[in-house]
């Protein structure tokens, strides 16, 4: 049996990568099918008469093209379903706007103390709260308990001066017998100001610009 070259994958790639609308995709699929038939006809005309391609090979090629076409249509349906679900998610999470969400996002410091909710590793016998500014530079390091008790961060440095207003993030470094065993992000409560949907799902935007997936919000509360 002679080897068979399948032109379908190459000819249908354009339908999955360049089409901008359902009608355009349908036109591309139709055009690709015509191209496929032309290539199949040329293949039949130029086959070796002493060693012709078996009919089963043609059937395989036709089935392969049909499978790719169906996959393109399935992808379109899945994309439409995802968009519809995203819209439903926006409506569901829209009620969160104006509430305070608990998540590991940067805090907007304006001089008012911020409640930080650290989560040291279970094996830690000591822990430190590390504060970093918007550029990621460490500006403060404070010892904290390992039981996860809330910490009131006042924004006052070691020299007694209040740090500048801006965005600050918090991480917890855990230690065991003096050795650092890990780092974990600390959560805060911050007002939710926007709900956004993209390809990865529903995102929440917090006051100060922090952003995270809705699934990463561990608690909600009314402001005040």
UniProtKB/TrEMBL annotation:
Q: Where are the transmembrane segments?
A: none
Protein keywords: Bacterial flagellum biogenesis, Cell projection, Cilium, Flagellum
One Pfam entry name:
FlgD
Q: Which residues form a coiled coil?
A: none
Ranges for the FlgD/Vpr Ig-like domain? 110-174
What domain of life does the UniProt record list for this protein's source? Bacteria
An annotated GO BP:
bacterial-type flagellum organization
Q: Tell me which family the UniProt entry assigns to this protein.
A: Belongs to the FlgD family.
Q: What does this protein do?
A: Required for flagellar hook formation. May act as a scaffolding protein.
Q: What is this protein called?
A: Basal-body rod modification protein FlgD
């Amino acid at each position: 049996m002679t080897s068979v070259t399948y032109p379908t994958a190459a000819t249908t790639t354009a339908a999955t990568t360049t089409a901008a609308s359902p009608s355009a995709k349908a036109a591309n699929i139709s055009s690709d099918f015509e191209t496929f038939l032309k290539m199949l006809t040329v293949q039949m005309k130029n086959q070796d008469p002493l060693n012709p391609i078996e009919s089963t090979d043609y059937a395989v090629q036709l089935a392969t093209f049909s499978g790719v076409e169906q996959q393109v249509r399935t992808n379109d349906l899945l994309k439409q379903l995802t968009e519809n679900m995203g819209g439903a998610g926006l409506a569901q999470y829209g009620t969160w706007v104006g509430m305070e969400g608990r998540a590991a996002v940067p805090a907007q410091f304006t001089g008012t103390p911020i409640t930080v909710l650290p989560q040291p590793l279970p094996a830690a016998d000591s822990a430190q709260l590390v504060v970093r500014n918007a550029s990621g530079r460490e500006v403060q390091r404070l010892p904290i308990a390992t039981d996860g008790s809330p910490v009131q961060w006042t924004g006052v440095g070691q020299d007694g001066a209040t740090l500048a207003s801006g965005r600050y993030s918090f991480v917890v470094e855990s230690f065991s017998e003096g050795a650092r065993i890990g780092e974990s992000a600390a959560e805060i409560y911050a007002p939710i100001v926007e709900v956004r949907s993209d390809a990865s799902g529903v995102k929440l935007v917090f006051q100060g610009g922090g952003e995270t997936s809705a699934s990463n919000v561990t608690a909600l509360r009314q402001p005040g």
